[in-house]
Amino acid sequence: MTDKIQDLLHRVEAFAPRTAAEIEEFRIRILGRKGELNALMEEFKSVAPELKRELGQQINHLKSAALERINALKGELEERQSASAASVGDMTRPGSAGQSGSRHPISLVKNQIVEIFSRLGYTVAEGPEIEDDWHVFSALNFPPEHPARDMQDTFFIGKNPDVLLRTHTSSIQVRTMEHQRPPIRVICPGRVFRNEAISYRAHCIFHQIEGLYIDRNVSFADMKQSILYFAKELFGESSTIRMRPSYFPFTEPSAEVDVSCNLCGGKGCNVCKGTGWLEIMGCGMVDPNVLEANGIDSKEYSGFAFGMGVERIAMLKYGVKDLRLYFENDVRFLHQFDSAL
Question: How many CA atoms lie within 13 A of 336 on its CB side?
Fold first, then answer.
């Protein structure tokens, strides 16, 4: 009988339930009216008198151990359930909507620019960020001595001067001209890289959107009208533009485009430095050398190209004065654009 008592005691001590139902089932099996402990009590009645004291003490110890073990297991299970409920929170409280994320202001402006030009028939073209000299410089009429080729401006990869991070999305235009015959009308958004010191007005990484339109009889007037339409759609119907002569290796003639300041209405303020104008992009007629370098007959086709910095447009549109804010991922800054979704 001693062996039966010890075996049952070991089973009580080793019992490890996972649910309250398992604990109750174990209690009934051990301590119930028809349980194993009562069976031992019935057997106890027939033992020899000289053994009753010792076996009686063992049975009492078994009963006490079983009750303590079952009560302890119930307490541990209740504690685990309480801790789990506390981690979830009060399930009776009214629910609250989760805080949704915000689109980045750069994405907002990029998508808006692409959408505006899509109304004019432009499609989106993309290209690699790691490029070669031909697509970034040579095919765009950059002479070998041009300062943009210098290490001061360009990130070269390894010791190979032919592999670099693109400094503008004009390389996408080159790839488009290589694989598509006119008419060509594409918009080229993307991230670009230049070896510049980071400050409130400059960064080594930024985003550009460039456009290219090539067809027969494309004129400077076509370009001006397209850019005017863009400015009115982005900055408001009252916006006007002006063009100042400029120079780019891949366009001739070239121009810088200013838009009337939408903050002061052209009267002059701190943002436009009292001029009433804000610079937004560069543009020009595609140089015949660029067309010929990319296998397009410059005597039959003409075209124009333009390019703008997305961060610059976003700064003007939202009044952001520090370029670094776009790259710090501060949620306090990003949540200001929730209403712009």
Answer: 11
Q: Is 273 left (phi over 0), alpha (psi -120 to 50) or beta?
A: left
| 94 part of a folded domain | no
Q: Is 246 exposed, middle or buried (0-12, 13-18, 19+ CB in 10 A)?
A: middle
The 10s digit of each residue's pLDDT in 20-38 is 888 888 788 877 777 777 7
CA 333, CA 162: separation in Å to the nearest integer? 39
- The pLDDT-based confidence of 90 (bands split at 50, 70, 90) is low
Contact (Cβ atoms closer than 8 angstroms) between residue 241 and residue 259: yes
Tokens of 110: 């990029």
Question: What's residue 335's pLDDT?
Answer: 83
Please state the pTM of the whole predicted model.
Answer: 0.67
Determine if the peptide bond prior to 147 is cis (ω within 30°): no
Q: Identify whether 99 is part of a domain.
A: no
Do 318 and 245 lie in a common domain? yes
| CB neighbours of residue 254 within 10 Å | 19
Mean pLDDT along residues 131-152? 83
Residues 76 and 10 in one domain: yes
Tell me the CATH number at 278.
3.30.930.10
How many CB atoms sit inside 10 A of residue 311's CB? 23
Over pLDDT 90: what percentage of the chain? 43
pLDDT at 100 over 80: no
Cα separation, 41 vs 56, in Å, equals: 9
